Amino acid sequence: MNKQNRIIIDTFGSDKGPSSVILGGLLLLKAHPDLFISFVGDETIINEELNKNNILDLSHIHIIHTNVAVNNFDNPTAAIFQKSDASIFLAERTLAEDDETIGLLTAGSSGSILMGSFRYLANETLTRPCMASILPSCKQGEFVCLVDTGSTIDCLPTQLHEFARLGRDLMKQLYKIESPKIGLLSNGAESSKGNKLVKETYGLLSTDPNLNFVGNIEGNNALSGDCDVLVADGFAGNMVLKVTEGTAARMIKDMVMYSKAHNQPDIMPLVQHMLATYDISSLGGAIVLGVRKPIIKCRGNSDEKAILNTGEILINIANNKSFFEGKVENK
Known about the structure:
It is a single chain. The two termini are about 30 Å apart. An eleven-stranded mixed sheet has the order 3-2-1-4-11-10-5-6-9-7-8, sandwiched between helices. By secondary structure, the protein is α/β, with parallel strands linked by helices. The chain has two domains: about 1-125 and about 290-330, 3-Layer(aba) Sandwich (Isopropylmalate Dehydrogenase), CATH 3.40.718; about 130-280, Isopropylmalate Dehydrogenase. The chain is built from twelve helices and eleven strands.
């Protein structure tokens, strides 16, 4: 890593509480001895976790104290003014102002992350940031970028057009795909299918010469590999994300139960393969696009392993500075 090697970790927002988030951060420090971490949250709780884990060397740890948090019942638009010192907003402000800080990891609510991103870190050439998740493709070793995954529920066609370009640029940077295939989530493959938003977006994507648009993609083909970037509004995209995770978890559970009930341990290698492919802990979280520095939203139920893996992805993305410091490509 280069000289600028500090990340911020928001310790609030996780379903498992601050402990798992802090422990994940400590595992990340162990894996990267030259890394610095700023933990944002309740100083007492953070120090208790540091003491519990016998952390004596605090030279790479900085604590930004606040006991204010935004919960899932808060209105994000109001919270950014009424709870301006909440951990997520404090973390995003620090990320925007501190040149030595390269990225932010948080398990906070999508709405609050988006509001803070828009206010402090948004790219001035875009209407609003969005969130993307990287999911395993049916094609071995390949992935699909699903965008948006919940940050903007009600979108305009022009916003989905921007999301498509952001997703394209991300896949170019992360996976070196020269011309990522762009698909639009719809209820049918034909250009005539879809609601008003999908039909209008189809027109924009299909006439953009700078996009490799392959047409509508139905939900059952979301991970088929027919596209590298799957574009959807935040409501539909979040449904795809949650249904994919839930279905994979159910299938794995059923196979384990069947193996035990019928004394067939031979299928366990298949179970291990499924776990490795659909392991939420290894897939990281939602990447905020359209901002000047990388932010990753961890899943709410992330344990320390998931925090560690998400931190690894954050560091990886942060080193691709051109993607965040530049503007959305027009070619």
